[in-house]
């Protein structure tokens, strides 16, 4: 397939933009606009251009190296042609050569296509061989060395590429005497290694045979076909001789190799020599002679190279060589001028190589950490000292050496991290010190391959190092109380291991014998409680000393008790009793009965805390009444409850038994006899809720705004909230300034009002409360839970079932925020036929009942919409059973969201009614869709969040008589009524006396009021009630001749919907119908208002 014609070249400015996009650390979207172009072809073809600035050309090559490799195979000819046509003396030729070779090495793999990939590969190798085939040519030795390195890279990517030219490479390497000889030797070594891997040594033809000049080069046949497995036949005599010649040449001049080149060379030599070592064993001795001197080098690379030869040819190096190498590694770890990784690597080589294991004890004096050594190096050196200590102690246990050397090694080693004795227990120095002590234990009794205990445990328990470590731990615990938790954890680690459990038990016995007699009772003894609990848990440790010390402690706590130590006394007394419970759980009661009973009796009689005395009384009762085996089983049943701090003894909270789980069916039927019911029934039985998708601002059409959008003023860097992102209004953020007097007054009222509305995004919002009652039926409860108590009438309260510690949890998918749970400590079941059913009364209160508990559900709505609250209950029964399950959900209606608007604190009490009326008119104006106030933003409470108003209007015609409407308003909307206008309406509402503290927009002294009112009024006479039929409250021509069908008056209702929305009603009341004009700044609530108004008058 022919290559497509090249795209137009990019200008220098475009190249600079492209390079900037690729070098940017921003997301890769900036690079996508360039990826449709053939960037590799454009970059390579732009290199010879003279109009391209010289500083861009190396950047283009770096772009190819970093982002455009591996290339497509069809781009290889262009790369090759560019390289061959590039001037030889150009400063970028070496960089271009490296790029082209990298492209070929990354794009090609065996087998190579004979028609497409083989020709450019052969041409590139031919050009490189031509450049390298001039040995000792001084002016271009750097170019020749680069050509050799390029050939080696190609040979590594395509193994065996130069296998047929091995003879030429041998001649070139032998003839080269300039500093470029290193590149020639490495090229020869690489080609020889691949020849060995391909099985060329088994051939009868010489691998060094030369049939002609090295150029023109042709790709070997094995790279043009599928790879085949190399034969395992022994090498032929001629090739064995040739490979020895190659090895001799490679080892002849190690002095011309850099440390990095020497490390690579030794790796290749080890592989080639290992392949023919069986037929030429003298090669190993030759390698030792040539490279053994690297042991005296200061380069870590050369030391690593020699270690590779040590491992590969163990028979070639003797004991003296091993001692020399071990000394060099130990010395390298001590040299402070070396980098930390090199010093750690030297110790790792010394301990990780099995050749130097028996030499490490003789180098112990070099492993002492210096005070200024890094902590990581100290830890590694302490590992070496632990290894030496364990080895010497093993010889002593077998009958060998003095014990003073052992203790000296460990003590002198730990002195470098002696700060751990006064540093916090969590310090790194403490961890290093105890890690070294654990290494001593593990080294003294190493882990075996099978899961059995150490066979020589008896001898090691009496070994010098084990006794010395025990003495160190006892001194630490006695002198440094802060280390007690670390010692306890150290003991836990030993006890948890099957192989070292005996060491942990012996350590606990030693602490019991040597540490406990040193301790004095008092408040500071609490630091040792973790160790005391470990001693109490172990069955092999006698408990007499511990019980005596705890008895003294309880006496001391009783004497020192006072008003300021009540909490300390309770805490430490509880822990002591908890340790006693641990003893009951893990020891035979016959062994500890007498001393433990004395301790518990002393606690019961004299300890000042009541709770501790009760716990001690329970323990004493179990100790004296329950047999030992049953007692231990009883104490072992049960888990630590959730929420209890693990620092206290876990057994202190063990429950004595666990009742079997109840049938799941009984849990699902809880709602049939356990009830949580609303006290105030809903006007509208809501069975649906409107859910709107939460679209982002960016996805909305232009100019679209939510009803009240959440806007945030820009805070300072310190005040930027980390919570949810606050939505911004869709219009420009520049506020429209209203210049007329009416608009300015409206804005002033709204700003003053919104400053009182809390911002729930930055603080707690307003909460609504739903009062409920909680009760359960006795008869079905007894039937399900198997209570043996008879259920009688209401007078037999002692015989009724009861629930304890009732927790009622709530959850909801609606936006009600986190709903706190409610707790009922105790409640009796409701007896059958008691007549105590829940009946709502006029004042919306329940009849008092001893079988009902009041529960208040607190919601913090994020959206004023109805929803359901899922209810779950958990409680304890009298027989220690636990019941849990779901109850019937609680319905939340739109009327539950109704609240009165906030009043600024500086408003006088007599001015509240007028303030509400002004606020109603301001909100009514702001919710008008034609108003410009919707462009304004109003700061909320605390000045962080803001709100913008975008109102919606609606109209509702209710065909209802004035009597029904007035009754519904007085019952459900009285507290939200702002003002009443109209003589007739004012007279009726004032007569009823339900609505107070509002603005009455009719003059009560006007004579016309009494003339047209349903109930005539005169200040000089009493009210005369006129008998009218219930359905005769109508305004017709006979009674109100001057009024039309809706001119009785107007009622204005203002309702606040949390968190910061409003619902406004203007009710124009007539004789046969009422027109309700509705305005709101939260249009979704209109979906529920229509049903609410219908239910209001039904």
From TrEMBL:
One Pfam family recorded for the sequence: AP5B1_C
Signal peptide from the UniProt entry: none
AP5B1 middle domain location: 241-631
Limits of the AP5B1 C-terminal domain: 1049-1095
Lineage: superkingdom: Eukaryota
GO cellular component: AP-type membrane coat adaptor complex
One BP annotation, GO: endosomal transport
TM region positions: none
PANTHER family from the UniProt entry: AP-5 COMPLEX SUBUNIT BETA-1 (PTHR34033:SF1)
Protein's name according to its UniProt entry: AP-5 complex subunit beta-1
